[in-house]
Design goal:
The complex is a heterodimer of chains A (about 70) and B (about 180). Chain A is mainly β. Chain A has no helices and five strands. Chain A has a two-stranded antiparallel sheet with strand order 4-5. In chain A, strand 4 and strand 5 form a beta hairpin. Chain A is rod-shaped. The N and C termini of chain A lie far apart (about 55 Å). Chain B is mainly beta and about 180 residues long. Chain B folds into two domains: about 80 residues, no CATH class; about 80 residues, no CATH class. In chain B, a hairpin with a 4-residue loop joins strand 3 and strand 4. Classes of the chains: A mainly beta (about 70), B mainly beta (about 180). The interface between A and B is large, with 60 and 82 residues.
Amino acid sequence: MSSIIINSTNIIDRINNSTLQIDFERSVSLFDKHIALTSAFLYFSWRNITSSNNTFSYIWVDDVEYSV
Amino acid sequence: MTQNGHVMVNTETNSTVLFIDMLVNNTKYSIDIITYPVPSTFSEGFTSSITFSSVAKNPRLKLPAGMSDIFGYDEGFTTNAGSEIQTYNSTKAPNVSPDSSVLLVCDQVNNEFSNLGILYAISPSVGICSIIIDRPSQPIYSKLKNGSYNHVTFRILSSKTFRPIKILDSEINFIFSIK
């Protein structure tokens, strides 16, 4: 059994910080191999409110719609 | 509504009267929406910049996609016009945390039941901005695609959209075992 550790230095998508890659010095055979997460440490730092869910509106009594 | 001048102010207490309320209702697992009729004339003791309509009328709240999920209503939900107090309960479970869990995916995992090589789901059991420490009680092994690789790629995806989620804090640490 082998372990691999990946951390912030392995992030390859610096915009989202959500794609991580470990590069091997040489090609590694993964024939008949299995992988499992042993432990995870990360901050709960993703937004619940984004541009896709941050607005609603109301129609006032003059029938004009106002965004909030 | 305040910015648009769609409020009334009690001149005695200086309290503001709003015509749409949204309240958490724990008993009904709902975010209740209450709309109140805007009067057709000034009520005594109140001041306002509202241009009153000829009849009392409720403002209508519209919830587009995304926001409707948060409040627990169908997409495009709109309250009714009317001239009396109206109350609405969520028609589905409100989801104030749309990404209440994230998926850990490995591109090299072979999963015959899913195109995504899902390894694990991480559900934060801590408050926002706190560290999530997740140590599975026992490792759940997934088969890797046979072949030789010079890298292994992992992605953290939204469990709702299956798209990469934007993580603000890059301090991330995963340990995997391969056997």
